[in-house]
Design a protein that fits this description.
401 residues, alpha/beta, Rossmann fold, binds pyridoxal-5'-phosphate, binds the ligand N[C@@H](CCOP(=O)(O)O)C(=O)O, pyridoxal phosphate binding, threonine synthase activity
Length: 401
């Protein structure tokens, strides 16, 4: 049993209402379960395969879900990087291993299922790339048409390719992501299209399962949970999920929620570090990590609560620090991620250098999207392949043998 409730004024709404913010005060909504009526045990969950749907008692979907087998992603112990940083308990949860290569699939399996459950006939989103790739795939699976709005020229190649190939109507606007989101919100409200950005509280329900899985894989609550922050939905979702586990008595403490942004796009970091009551939007965000090139995060209010209520923190990393960590993850750990994803681990490195982290902490960094999402940024950082004549002599010569 669940209802929608406003995170600000507490007004409650029936689950079937197609609303994204509180009609009374305009603030964000959340899905609230009556935890007393949830009778599942941790043992029951443990007997099911690791996946978003292992946790179905804490998800709002009552129909057969639109699924591409999302979740169940690996949790890697970063042994080499951890040793270099003096962090023996450093882990990465590789969300790039989801069906379309990012954590968005956890949200979309729930979001597109809810679209069908609520009788919606079409779906839409604005995107820096991954949301559109995921929505396009899940809409295809669910048999609903999808419209996606992208900031022209600022979306990584792999993501555009996915949205196009899965058959979404792809529209590139001559402005940034924040404007695309404003436009698509208006479009959806005026034309009865189901909005599947993270302002949709049901979509975030799927994303909270990243934290559930991490706790199950680690066998305990990490001391710190680190996420790259763009629109700030993921950090909010993870915190909400962990609160629910606490409410059910499955865990007895919360990790320090830690958000990492790019130096050129860091409104949440500025609010946290400046102890501001709310996030001040940034008008011209810029970073090589295009996935988190977002100046006006819609979930800022939820994210600030997550960070502040858990004694967490936020940090900004430069593009060079992001790319350097992308290379380190690839070359020292064999983990291929896109730039925004490397930001979480780069942020931990920075916090270690600042002396802000206890080295014995058990730290889970969420690495959010796959290396192949943004091949152009990869190619720019690497030497070209060595082209030779097809002879043994030429081969031995370039190998200095
Ligand atoms: C790869 C990647 N990492 C991180 C983020 C940031 O997540 P959020 O917007 O939930 O803060 C996004 C998109 O939002 C993303 O695509
Ligand atoms: N990085 C995101 C930006 C949109 O965020 P959302 O969580 O509100 O959908 C993307 O991949 O588009």
């Amino acid at each position: 049993m669940y209802r929608l409730s406003c995170i600000h004024c507490g007004a409650e709404y029936a689950p079937g209402e197609i609303i994204y913010t509180c009609p009374k005060c305009g603030h964000l909504l959340t899905v609230e379960y009556d935890l007393n009526t949830i009778s599942v045990t941790r043992d029951e969950w443990d007997r099911r395969p690791l996946s978003v749907w292992r946790y179905r008692e804490l998800l709002p979907v009552t129909i057969k879900p639109v699924s591409l087998q999302e979740g169940g992603t690996p949790l890697y112990h970063l042994e080499r990087l951890g040793e270099e940083l003096g962090l023996p308990h450093l882990y990465a949860k590789h969300e790039g291993m989801n069906p379309t290569g990012s954590f968005k699939d956890r949200g979309m399996t729930v979001g597109v299922s809810m679209a069908l459950q609520l009788g919606m006939k079409s779906v839409a989103c604005a995107s820096t790339g991954n949301t559109s790739a995921s929505l396009a795939a899940y809409a295809a699976k669910g048999g609903v048409p999808a419209v996606v709005l992208l900031p022209a020229g600022k979306v990584a190649l792999g993501k555009v390719a996915q949205a196009l190939m899965h058959g979404a109507k792809v529209i590139a606007i001559r402005d940034n992501f924040d404007r695309a989101l404003e436009l698509v919100r208006e479009l959806c409200i005026k034309h009865g299209i189901y909005l599947l950005n993270s302002v949709n509280p049901y979509r975030l329900e799927g994303q909270k399962t990243i934290a559930f899985e991490a706790v199950d894989q680690l066998g305990d609550v990490p001391d710190r949970f680190v996420l790259p922050v763009g629109n700030a939905g993921n950090i909010s979702a993870a915190y909400k999920g962990l609160r629910e586990l606490e409410g059910l008595g499955f865990i007895d403490r919360l990790p320090m929620m830690t958000g990492i942004q790019a130096a050129g796009s860091q409104p949440v970091v500025q609010a946290v570090r400046g102890s501001l009551p709310e996030v001040v939007p940034q008008t011209n965000p810029e970073t090589v990590a295009t996935a988190i090139r977002i100046g006006a995060p819609v979930n800022a209010e939820k994210a600030l609560t997550a960070i502040r209520a858990t004694g967490g923190t936020a940090a900004a990393v430069t593009d060079e620090e992001i790319l350097s960590m992308q290379r380190d993850l690839a070359r020292k750990e064999g983990i291929g991620v896109e730039p925004a994803s490397a930001a979480s681990v780069a942020g931990i490195k920075k916090l270690v250098e600042e002396g802000a982290i206890d080295r014995d902490e058990r730290i889970v960094c969420v690495v959010t999207g796959h290396l192949l999402k943004d091949p152009e940024t990869v190619i720019k950082q690497c030497p070209s392949p060595i082209e030779i004549e097809a002879t043994e002599q030429a081969l031995l010569s370039v190998l200095h043998l």
